[in-house]
DNA sequence: GTTTAAATCGTAATGATTATCAATTAACTT
DNA sequence: AAGTTAATTGATAATCATTACGATTTAAAC
């Protein structure tokens, strides 16, 4: 997904177009990896020295909510990345050094034959952690 | 695993037997669910009004390190549970209301045929979240 | 250009986790 | 049983991510 597509999606949902949002989206579009909130803040401060953490988190959560970003918890911090829209539901290998990801086109839920009768499944997480070829 | 077995394991590793450790282990042995650090603190304060958070965390991490406990991140907080030693490597359904778990005797890594050549896999996480029959 | 609700900023509060260090204690030695 | 010592704990403060909030600004609709 590119920045304009994302901003279009936001417009349709009634969100305003702001310079800060554009900038946040640019950061994510550029890199295929999970990024922590403080890294986003740091990056944005180049253009907007006075950005508030409130602005960062509010937007990250909002963008996750409208499925533009994906979130996960890495090393006790929330990390975000641009959602993959080139294919369907899938999972990721995540490099514990640089945060780059590789898609895993396999969902273990499809293979679950455990008896989960009586259980209400709301969500699931399958992530593989390690070193990518560049960091290995 | 029971408290005495766990304490024996600690002894073999050179850790001392303390009342606080016994108490922490008792809590975990009693319940088949993920518990947050602050809940452990609260529980232990009944017997040791002055326990320090340092004692709680140090022990939880140490017990995880020697494979007596398992840890995971739930809702932004570290949670711990007694490791399952009745069967081999497996995963869990986790109730998002009460923290109780159900073993899932299936590991998606066994079914991974993705090409991960050049990637160094260190770890993986597969968890299913939802409501258990009691909380449903 | 006016209006208005959304968004941002500046700043403070919260809450979990980590760190420090003096005092205590379990386990070993004599 | 008393002495020794390193591990452990308690009291407390620091750190760090995240959340909260009122005042100000701004995007976008009219
Ligand atoms: Mn992907
Ligand atoms: Mn289990
Ligand atoms: Zn990498
Ligand atoms: Zn439950």
List the chains of the largest interface with their residue counts.
A-B, 33 and 33 residues
Structural class of chain A: alpha+beta
Q: In terms of per-residue confidence, which ranges of chain A show pLDDT below 50 for 5 or more consecutive residues? A: none
| DSSP, total strands of chain A | 6
Briefly characterize the structure.
Two copies of one chain form a homodimer. Chain A is of the alpha+beta class and 136 residues long.
Q: Would you kindly provide a written description of the structure presented here, covering whatever features stand out?
A:
Two copies of one chain form a homodimer. Chain A is an alpha+beta fold and 136 residues long. Chain A folds into two domains: 80 residues, Winged helix-like DNA-binding domain superfamily/Winged helix DNA-binding domain (Arc Repressor Mutant, subunit A); 40 residues, Ferric-uptake regulator, C-terminal dimerisarion domain (Dna Ligase, domain 1, 2-Layer Sandwich), CATH 3.30.1490.190. Chain A contains four helices and six strands. In chain A, the strands form two sheets. Chain A has a three-stranded antiparallel sheet. In chain A, strands 5-4-6 form a three-stranded mixed sheet, with no helix packed on it. The first copy, chain A, is globular and about 50 Å long. At the A-B interface, β6 of A face β6 of B. The structure holds manganese (II) ion (2 copies) and zinc ion (2 copies). One manganese (II) ion binds next to loops of chain B. The first copy, chain A, binds a DNA duplex (30 and 30 nucleotides) through α4. Chains A, B: This is Transcriptional repressor.
């Amino acid at each position: 997904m590119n920045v304009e597509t994302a901003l279009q999606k936001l417009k349709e949902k009634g969100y305003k177009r702001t310079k800060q949002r554009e900038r946040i989206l640019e950061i994510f579009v550029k890199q295929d990896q999970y990024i922590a909130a403080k890294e986003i803040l740091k990056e944005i401060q180049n253009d907007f020295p006075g950005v508030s953490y409130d602005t960062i988190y509010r937007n990250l959560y909002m963008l996750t909510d409208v499925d533009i970003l994906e979130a996960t918890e890495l090393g006790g911090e929330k990390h975000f990345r641009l959602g993959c829209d080139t294919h369907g539901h899938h999972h990721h290998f995540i490099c514990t050094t640089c945060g780059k990801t590789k898609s895993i086109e396999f969902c273990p839920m499809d293979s679950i034959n455990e008896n989960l009768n009586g259980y209400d499944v709301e969500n699931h997480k399958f992530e593989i952690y390690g070193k990518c070829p560049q960091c290995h």
